[in-house]
């Protein structure tokens, strides 16, 4: 099960081939990717091991969620990337903002790795990559070791699924020999995000909790820690962090945590409840009807932002290099509406 399908259960959570006939991109973006400050070999350290990329990669493969967006944003189409099995609006395995970028670059659609049951090592190997990008992932040591037999692997710096958006761009762009371009991309995204946030002043002093409750069992609340980009990115922009999230994040490097609904009072400072669910009103009604959950001020007041499950907007709530331009403003609109 992919991380996002697993989180949907929890939270309901290509190189442009620069040689050969697929050759050098005719697009300006593809050409820009050639100009870098990269000096090889490049060494990238991670929590699982060290990747040594001896020369500039010509065939780039990516696994897990959104790593492919880094090379795409820098003008490189991967030879293979993870198939989108959650948030895909037309069933082609590619999220809309990725599809837009592929069209812009004019590259061939990458091979799509089906990660429903884990990494498809054979499919990755078949793309004959020079490097495998996985800075934002949940790779196990065994996964990493197996992939490393195919090509150097860029994994996460500290904890599984705990890579920030900035770190994902930094690590993946470094492996491509495009560190300066990656830094520029970070600044571009940061400016865009800050401008969008500034245009939604109602959110400035509201403490958000990105959480999930199983509709069939409301006895437990699952919530994201600040290690997860969904929660962490909002706090980076200036939204206050609930005390329970701060406390939990200091105690664990996990990207989520659970708590009994009997202890719902720990969320007394939460001003906005963000969750996946149904936008027909049933999710809000169920939360407000529960005798324990309804004691949380944000829920009682109806300050609940519901992201329609498995939609592109829901997927874009996990910030990535290309999704910010596509949906961040719409996401902030939803949050603003929820806080009234």
Automatic annotation (TrEMBL):
Fe/B12 periplasmic-binding domain mapped to chain residues: 59-339
Keyword Cell inner membrane listed: no
GO terms for biological process, alphabetical: iron coordination entity transport
Cellular component terms (Gene Ontology): outer membrane-bounded periplasmic space
Pfam families, per database record: Peripla_BP_2
Superkingdom of source: Bacteria
First and last residue of the signal peptide: 1-22
Transmembrane segments: none
Subcellular location: Cell envelope
Family statement drawn from the similarity comment of this UniProt entry: Belongs to the bacterial solute-binding protein 8 family.
Protein name (record): Iron complex transport system substrate-binding protein
Taxonomic source organism: Microbacterium proteolyticum
